[in-house]
Predict the structure.
Amino acid sequence: MRARVYRTLKNEFLCQLDESGEEIVATPLGKLLKSGIVVGDYVTLKVGVSGAYEIHAIEPRVNEISRVLPRVAKKKVTAANCDILIITVSATNPDYKRGIIDRFLLRAIEWQIHPVVIFNKMDLFNAEMFDLSFEQQRLAPLGVSCFEVSAVDPTYEPRFMQAGFEDLKNYITGKTAIFLGQSGVGKSEMISALSGGDIKLRSNEIGKGGKGAHTTTWSEIVNCGDFCFIDSPGIRSFSLDDFDPGSLMSFFPDIFDIASQCKFRDCLHHPNSTGCAFSKLEDSLENEMVLSRLESYCRFYEESSANPHWDKKKY
Ligand SMILES: Nc1nc2c(ncn2[C@@H]2O[C@H](COP(=O)(O)OP(=O)(O)OP(=O)(O)O)[C@@H](O)[C@H]2O)c(=O)[nH]1
Ligand SMILES: [Mg+2]
Ligand SMILES: [Zn+2]
């Protein structure tokens, strides 16, 4: 029978049976344990002679979520099979920063998970804060859908965008999501609103010890009824230390073509550098969007170059 791994315990896995939805604990056959089963994995179970559930096989993964373990300079897969990466930003408190969206878009590409952006706290928005349609349009070449919502008022109707709370709810129904965003933008509030206000966070009783109740120290899938989300330590990290600056442009598919037309080898594409392909762009709204993406690229390039002691090839 088929099941999905919801949480990893010591040498056992909390799984949900596909057919009945029942939660059970299963033990992998010896050689499978070494291959590293992670939350989100779909597995094949059999009932062993003792009547206990055994994991006999892991299905191939659609994608993998990984985090950097700085001390050993390695990447560790912490979860698998996520359908959607939800980047949450707020109109205010904290102020909107487009760089944060661009930053998490790198992870979406790295992990091969489809990203969307939630503009939250729109009940507090006024047009002087920023140009919402510009922010939405600059993401269009990347195929990123945007939603205009207020987590504290699910009846809020979108005023500037096509899609609002109901659209978001429909969009994530049946899916497994990761919520990324700065502290305070309303991720928890939004998860609660989307789940109709009654999500039950799994308690730590199975893990024993009871420590780390407030920080995410283990990976798990939280079932919110109509959708699930993956909670995993380290995945919300803003650091770009693990990116190789030399291949960073391949994470910017929307400006990659312009960059490859640049006649300078190893050009940093700094704004205003004479002769650079980007400096030749005409003044237009579209190119303003391109330059806003280039600005993030240049910032991230600098940031990911700042750690020369890391042997990035290891990743
Ligand atoms: N006015 C308004 N307040 C909101 C909205 N969404 C969240 N808040 C408030 O903003 C504060 C932070 O929301 P949280 O949901 O805790 O933020 P978070 O993203 O989970 O933050 P961390 O858990 O620290 O990462 C809370 O006081 C919420 O009630 C919104 O749409 N409108
Ligand atoms: Mg929270
Ligand atoms: Zn250039």
Q: What stands out?
A: Residues 120-121, 123-124, 150-152, 181, 183-189 surround guanosine-5'-triphosphate (ligand 1) (CB under 6 Å). Residues 64 and 159 are 36 Å apart (CA to CA).
